[in-house]
Amino acid sequence: MLRVAWLLPRVMASYSEVPRRTGLPREVLKWLQSLDLSVSPKNFRRDFSNGYLIAEIFYWYFPEDIQLHSYENGTSLANRLSNWSQLEKFFMKRNLKVTKALMDGTIHCKPEAAELFIQEMYVMLTNRRIKTIQDNEVDFTDCHYQKKLPMVARSTATKTVKSNVTLTEILAEPDILVNKQKVQALMGLHLQQRQQERIEDPKRFNVKPSLGELAIRVPPAGNKSDSYDNLSNRSQSSSASSGTDIRSKANVQFKEITVKQGNRSYVSSSVSSNSSSAMLSTLLQDAGEKWAAAF
Predict the structure, then answer these.
(1) Is 80 within 8 Å of 107 (Cβ atoms)?
(2) Given 13, 133, 158, 216, which is the most exposed site by the fewest CB atoms within 10 A?
(3) Interatomic CA distance for residues 150 and 12, integer angstroms
């Protein structure tokens, strides 16, 4: 037991932790220092969560729209929601495109949310471009971090929910259905990751191979080149035979034969006479039967 307790810190130290402070580009840091803010940000995730420093930054560019006395530099959830509601109205007034997911991620201290928001502000206010800004879809879960870890150190389903759903999110949005949808989305990502792990390392999960995988692949007896040559020879022979048949048919000479036909009027008259005699005989027979019945 003592040996395990001694090895545990060394094992955990070999795994990298989630960075609490993600570095910003050099030009963005210089821009923040040139604004002469009231508080020098050290932990971006914590210092920008209440929205006070963000309001102070926008005050340098829009002093007529931002009133700093209405913002409180506090850490409580009520102060955060109050400050960010005013900032959201300001964004709508100035037609600044800031996504709701980015604001929620900054409020609830999600990984890399505050850094991405600062980069967005830098691009909007200075009309400059930076190379490190994210162009893909915003994802504030620890999915990318979990992929970097070995399989033994990755989070379980319970740990995934606890790491990605904070207490402030539940207090800000107490709706059970909304929180249930968040948990279901996280569980879906976790199940996808587990399925990928089973594919990558089936021996660890004791995955038995299927019948198709157990079957032995036996190549055909003949070579492919021989079969291809046989097919080509057959096609050539068939084409040659068809060509000779056509040539032989071209040399055939046809001769027209005249056939003498009888007189059609004679045939029709004989047919009509036969039919009339048959009708006469039937009439005479009927008359004879009637005469016999009368006497």
Answers:
(1) yes
(2) 216
(3) 12
Looking at the fold, whether 64 and 154 belong to one and the same domain comes out as no
Q: How far apart are CA 142 and CA 164, in angstroms?
A: 7
CATH code, domain with 107 = 1.10.418.10
152 is a domain residue: yes
Mark whether 156 and 120 lie in a shared domain: no
What token pair was written down for 163? Answer: 């790491």
User: Domain check: are 159 and 114 in the same one?
Assistant: no
Let me know whether 31 and 118 are in one domain.
Answer: yes
- 169 Cβ partners below 8 Å, 6+ apart? 104, 108, 179, 182
Residue 114 domain boundaries: 26-126
Q: What is the pLDDT of residues 141-158, one digit of tens each?
A: 888 888 888 888 888 989
**Following CA atoms 194, 195, 198, 200 in sequence, which dihedral angle do they give, to the nearest 10 degrees?**
-100
Residue 179 near residue 170, CB atoms below 8 Å: yes
Q: How far apart, in Å, are the Cα atoms of 292 and each of 199, 278, 281, 287? A: 107, 22, 17, 9
pLDDT tens-place string over residues 17-36:
443 445 688 899 999 999 98
Whether residue 83 is predicted with pLDDT greater than 70 in this model: the reply is yes
* pLDDT for position 184: 92
Q: How many domains does the chain have?
A: 2
